[in-house]
Design brief:
This is AraC family transcriptional regulator. By secondary structure, this protein is an all-alpha fold. The protein has 17 helices and no strands. α7 runs antiparallel to α8. The termini are far apart.
Length: 378
């Protein structure tokens, strides 16, 4: 009873944390989406374990379709893509992300074909078909013993590109824990298949390890803020504090005369803070961003925001923000991850509000239209 309760709590927490990562602007990023999918996958595996314990599959045989799919193939894929995107090395790899899911797709199709015969009885596989299924099963086994270890080792190689030592440390711990669980699962599964060994107790222990992974990821993600580049925003979110602080930057709350004592040069503290907000927190992706919102974050007046931007950059506030948006568009155009997205979609995701605004700003900054720029990068 206690064991089942622990699994159910972990399932709920994994699903909830996955939804938080996907829906909250504080956590949502390309890398964290893969981590959310990893948590969903672990939750599904734990759910099948609970169904097995509660004999749900006996009462509802159709659920065997879920149980027989090898969700385990998704775990190294999602973990690797999380690390890969976390290190910002996506542009260096020519291998499309969907290739990492081919073993899972192959496994799922093979198992569904089997289940339509053995579980649902839709048809009966003939003798010749059974031989083919057996051969495909051997390929499935070969994929398991090669794909899973390879992708895990490749993940260790990818981590070296992380520049933040603290971030590298916690991701390395996560990878080590997940890798250990997967290797034990793989060895146990092979022992059960080849030696007819009862692996139920081992799988129960691995399920507990999966609950630990979910709990630990939640702790790191929410309380240690490691899943977000915008750690200060999360701190303020948790502590109901609207002020965002940075080391060595003393931001003044409200509009006081002190804001005008700062020298309006490139080393102006408020301008440095604004640069950090754009470069680290990507506030320009907010299509409703205006001087008032920025002023609130900086703790100064909207007029002073315009003054420091105009004085230091020689541009108005709108053009200053649009330059960051244009640079984001250029990076996304060059990134294979977005090659199937339309230019308008990329522009809107970068913070522009319409096609006209996007094209005009891009032309003003680069001297080319987005289409012309895209053609020159091919």
């Amino acid at each position: 009873m206690i064991y089942t309760t622990l699994l159910i709590i972990a399932i709920f927490q994994g699903m909830l944390l996955g939804l938080v990562i996907l829906k909250s602007s504080l956590f949502n990023s390309r890398s964290n989406r893969y981590l959310a999918c990893l948590l969903f996958t672990l939750s599904i595996k734990l759910l099948t374990q609970v169904f097995e314990i509660q004999h749900v599959f006996t009462s509802y045989p159709l659920l065997r379709f879920i149980d027989n799919i090898e969700w385990i193939f998704l775990i190294p894929a999602f973990l690797f893509l999380f690390i890969k995107n976390r290190t910002n090395t996506t542009g260096k790899s020519r291998l499309k992300n969907y290739w990492y899911f081919i073993p899972f797709a192959y496994s799922a199709v093979l198992n569904i074909v089997n289940d339509l015969d053995h579980v649902e009885g839709v048809y009966t596989i003939p003798e010749s078909g059974i031989t083919i299924i057996s051969i495909l099963g051997l390929i499935h086994l070969a994929l398991a013993v090669t794909f899973i270890p390879f992708l895990l080792f490749y993940s260790y190689f990818t981590i070296k590109h992380l520049k933040d030592s603290k971030e590298k440390k916690w991701i390395l711990i996560l990878l080590t824990i997940v890798s250990s669980v997967l290797f034990v699962w793989l060895i146990s599964a092979l022992a059960g298949l080849l030696l007819d060994y009862d692996i139920s107790s081992t799988m129960s222990i691995l399920a507990l390890c999966a609950t630990f992974i979910i709990h630990w990821t939640a702790y790191i993600g929410i309380y240690k803020y490691k899943l977000a580049k915008n750690k200060e925003a999360i701190y303020n979110f948790l502590n109901n504090d609207s002020a965002i602080s940075y080391p060595n930057l003393q931001i003044v709350q409200n509009n006081t005369p002190q804001e005008h004592r700062e020298s309006i040069t490139a080393d102006n503290l408020y301008f440095q803070k604004l640069e950090l907000l754009c470069k680290d927190q990507h506030i320009y992706t907010d299509s409703t961003l205006n001087r008032e919102k920025v002023a609130e974050k900086l703790g100064i007046s909207p007029g002073y925001v315009s003054q420091i931007v105009n004085t230091i950059t020689g541009d108005n506030f709108a053009h200053y923000i649009n330059q960051y948006r244009v640079e984001a568009v250029k990076e996304m155009i060059s990134d294979p991850e977005y090659e199937n997205d339309t230019l308008l979609t990329i522009g809107l995701e970068s913070g522009f509000t319409s096609k006209t605004t996007f094209y005009n700003a891009f032309k003003k900054v680069t001297g080319q239209t987005p289409n012309e720029y895209k053609n020159t990068t091919k």
